[in-house]
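Here is a typical sample entry:
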Amino acid sequence: MTMAPLMKAYKFALPPMLAQCATAGFLFSAGDIIAQQAVEGKGKDYQKMLRGVEGKELKQEATKQVREQVVKIAMQNWRKPFKNIGKEVEPQLSAETVHEVLAEKGYHCHVAWKVPLLSGLARKKCLNWAMDYWSMTFEQWGDIAWSDEVYIMLGESPGQIFVTCHTGEAFDNECCIPCFKQSSVRCMVWSLIIRGMKGPLVILEYLRGKGGGMTAEWYQEQVLEGALDGAPSHCAKTTTEWFNKHHIPLFLHPPSSPDLSPIEPVWHIFKSKLHDCKRQPTMYNELCAAIFEVWDDIDYDDIDKFIDHMPEVVQAMIDAKGGHTQY
């Protein structure tokens, strides 16, 4: 323990509980000292005392037993914040130390992905789907037409936006993104992709007006052939009969499945390009014009790379036993 001399130098000023811990032979951070002394009501005194040791290598080294307890608590509830985990062990640990303990075991904290809720039956169907198409060749994947529709609305952000600023500037106008009420100017578009090709972009018109719901009847009237996912309008009996009548074989996804179709990441690229347009549309006609322009700008390489990943997608689904994957 190379930091023992440093701890000894400040041992006289440590909170009683941490003084006992220092005597027991393990170390802790300045943050842990401040956290403990806050419980004892001497926050300002210790913060002033520790101001001179900030930046020095003052680490908290929990015992093996405490480390095992941290991992056990985390595994019981993966959503529990590090600071709460630190409060459940004795002696208490800071969130930073909990992070370090879990990182040593290969555990890391990240924003949870939002995914469809999969029941046991849905997972089974996803696994069966993957097993059915596991043997498909690279060429066969390239012969499938993948179709889907997507909502587009004015002011829609493609994802999180990060800003770089000094401390205290987070709420400056330049560092904030204004929020508006959801725009009524929106539309749903449909298209399909094949390796080396992309279909026309169709702006779907609704009996209920722009942005309304999609029924099986309207889907059949406005959408052409392609691969379908498990959406209700795609699986309707009349829709299936329409495809059979026109001798178009279907490549269906299981219901409630994750977004396995390679057109899904293409839509993300499409929305990002639309968001990056120098002149943002403000009216419905302008939005439609921008949509066609951006779709024409989608590169075939962006399409092919996702189709070429389908064997990996299927294998990942098998490895996950029908559960969620990185795709």
